[in-house]
Structure to design on (228 residues):
């Protein structure tokens, strides 16, 4: 029987190792790659073409939502993406549902739930943690083509590059560091930063950080260990 190929993306090595061990113990999965940030995730997925990507939302450089957006836009036949988060906040849920990923699991879920989710999305179904599904007014497992009866409109005030700059600013990086990482000039970083402030009506770094947390671009605290 063909094993489902999986890429694991989380910035904590111990979490990736834990998930890998659990999936390999199950026997139906083959972990073909691991990534520690959103950019590395994008590169691995585009080169390895896995069946499923288990993708943490809160990662450095490029968060999981932005990484998923890029993957879905670039690949003619993209993998099924399951988002992981320590939170079931509406800010995250709305973005993930609107993006069209196949699943959303909170990190308190069990290993059995994750395995079930991977099998479900591989079969072209959607899978959400029961607590998330309850907030959306549906069930954990949805058949192909069915979605939650909920307003999925997400305000897209910012461009992709502006969201990247906003994330790096909120993570505490200086303009010089952002410029080097994104391979753009410091003046371009400053321009994007000013555009973000103008569009959002925010005039200081603390305000940008609060917005990034509220919008689900970054998470406000260090994540808990997965799968107790």
């Amino acid at each position: 029987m063909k094993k489902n190929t999986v890429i694991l993306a989380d910035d904590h090595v111990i979490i990736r190792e834990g998930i890998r061990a659990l999936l390999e113990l199950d026997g139906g999965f083959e972990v073909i790659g691991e990534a520690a940030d959103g950019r590395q995730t994008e590169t691995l997925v585009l080169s390895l073409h896995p069946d499923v990507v288990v993708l943490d939302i809160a990662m450095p450089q490029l968060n999981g939502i932005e990484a998923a957006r890029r993957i879905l836009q670039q690949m003619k036949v993209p993998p099924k993406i399951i988002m992981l988060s320590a939170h079931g906040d509406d800010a995250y849920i709305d973005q993930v549902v609107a993006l069209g990923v196949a699943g959303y699991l909170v990190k308190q879920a069990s290993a059995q739930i994750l395995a079930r989710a991977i099998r479900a999305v591989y079969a072209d179904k959607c899978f959400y943690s029961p607590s998330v599904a309850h907030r959306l007014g549906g069930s954990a497992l949805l058949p192909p083509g069915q979605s939650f009866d909920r307003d999925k409109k997400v305000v897209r005030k910012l461009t992709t590059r502006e969201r990247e700059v906003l994330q790096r600013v909120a993570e505490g990086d200086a303009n010089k560091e952002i410029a080097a990482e994104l391979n753009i000039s410091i003046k371009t970083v400053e321009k994007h930063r000013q555009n973000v402030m103008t569009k959002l009506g925010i005039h200081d770094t603390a305000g940008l950080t609060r917005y990034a947390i509220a919008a689900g671009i970054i998470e406000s605290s260090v994540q808990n260990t997965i799968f107790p």
Strands lie at 4-9, 29-35, 52-56, 80-85, 103-106, 126-128, 141-142. The first strand starts at residue 4 and ends at 9. The CA atoms of residues 54 and 127 lie 12 Å apart. The first helix runs from residue 13 to 26.
